[in-house]
Input
Amino acid sequence: MDRDQLAGAVLLSVCLGSICIYFWLVFFAAPLLVLQITAFATVTVALLILAWIGLTLATTPQSKSMEEIEKELEQELKLAGGQGQTKPE
Output
Protein backbone atom coordinates (compact mmCIF):
# COMPACT_ATOMS: atom_id res chain seq x y z
CA MET A 1 0.00 0.00 0.00
CA ASP A 2 1.54 3.29 -1.05
CA ARG A 3 1.35 6.57 0.83
CA ASP A 4 -1.73 7.93 -0.99
CA GLN A 5 -3.70 4.73 -0.43
CA LEU A 6 -2.77 4.77 3.26
CA ALA A 7 -3.88 8.40 3.57
CA GLY A 8 -7.15 7.51 1.83
CA ALA A 9 -7.77 4.56 4.15
CA VAL A 10 -7.07 6.68 7.25
CA LEU A 11 -9.34 9.46 5.97
CA LEU A 12 -12.11 6.96 5.24
CA SER A 13 -11.80 5.39 8.69
CA VAL A 14 -11.77 8.76 10.48
CA CYS A 15 -14.81 9.98 8.56
CA LEU A 16 -16.83 6.80 9.18
CA GLY A 17 -15.90 6.87 12.85
CA SER A 18 -16.89 10.54 13.06
CA ILE A 19 -20.27 9.75 11.49
CA CYS A 20 -20.88 7.09 14.13
CA ILE A 21 -19.89 9.45 16.96
CA TYR A 22 -22.06 12.24 15.54
CA PHE A 23 -25.01 9.84 15.23
CA TRP A 24 -24.60 8.82 18.86
CA LEU A 25 -24.32 12.44 20.02
CA VAL A 26 -27.39 13.59 18.09
CA PHE A 27 -29.70 10.73 18.99
CA PHE A 28 -28.52 9.60 22.42
CA ALA A 29 -26.30 12.11 24.24
CA ALA A 30 -27.20 15.80 23.92
CA PRO A 31 -29.18 16.28 20.72
CA LEU A 32 -30.13 19.94 21.17
CA LEU A 33 -26.62 21.10 22.02
CA VAL A 34 -25.05 19.08 19.18
CA LEU A 35 -27.55 20.44 16.65
CA GLN A 36 -26.97 24.00 17.86
CA ILE A 37 -23.22 23.60 17.51
CA THR A 38 -23.64 22.04 14.06
CA ALA A 39 -25.93 24.83 12.86
CA PHE A 40 -23.58 27.49 14.23
CA ALA A 41 -20.56 25.91 12.59
CA THR A 42 -22.36 25.57 9.25
CA VAL A 43 -23.53 29.19 9.21
CA THR A 44 -20.10 30.40 10.35
CA VAL A 45 -18.30 28.55 7.55
CA ALA A 46 -20.77 29.83 4.94
CA LEU A 47 -20.40 33.42 6.15
CA LEU A 48 -16.60 33.14 6.28
CA ILE A 49 -16.59 31.97 2.66
CA LEU A 50 -18.77 34.94 1.68
CA ALA A 51 -16.51 37.29 3.68
CA TRP A 52 -13.47 35.90 1.86
CA ILE A 53 -15.17 36.51 -1.50
CA GLY A 54 -16.02 40.06 -0.40
CA LEU A 55 -12.45 40.70 0.71
CA THR A 56 -11.13 39.42 -2.59
CA LEU A 57 -13.53 41.64 -4.55
CA ALA A 58 -12.70 44.66 -2.41
CA THR A 59 -8.92 44.30 -2.65
CA THR A 60 -8.57 43.27 -6.30
CA PRO A 61 -7.35 46.16 -8.47
CA GLN A 62 -9.82 47.46 -11.01
CA SER A 63 -9.30 46.05 -14.48
CA LYS A 64 -8.70 48.30 -17.46
CA SER A 65 -11.57 49.22 -19.75
CA MET A 66 -11.59 48.11 -23.36
CA GLU A 67 -10.95 51.68 -24.52
CA GLU A 68 -7.76 51.89 -22.43
CA ILE A 69 -6.55 48.54 -23.76
CA GLU A 70 -7.27 49.60 -27.36
CA LYS A 71 -5.35 52.87 -26.88
CA GLU A 72 -2.35 51.01 -25.46
CA LEU A 73 -2.41 48.54 -28.36
CA GLU A 74 -2.59 51.38 -30.89
CA GLN A 75 0.39 53.09 -29.25
CA GLU A 76 2.38 49.86 -29.27
CA LEU A 77 1.50 49.26 -32.92
CA LYS A 78 2.60 52.78 -33.83
CA LEU A 79 5.91 52.26 -32.03
CA ALA A 80 6.37 48.89 -33.68
CA GLY A 81 5.47 50.36 -37.08
CA GLY A 82 8.20 52.95 -36.70
CA GLN A 83 10.77 50.22 -36.16
CA GLY A 84 10.19 48.48 -39.44
CA GLN A 85 7.64 45.93 -38.26
CA THR A 86 4.35 45.59 -40.06
CA LYS A 87 0.94 46.09 -38.49
CA PRO A 88 -1.40 43.10 -38.30
CA GLU A 89 -4.55 43.43 -40.39
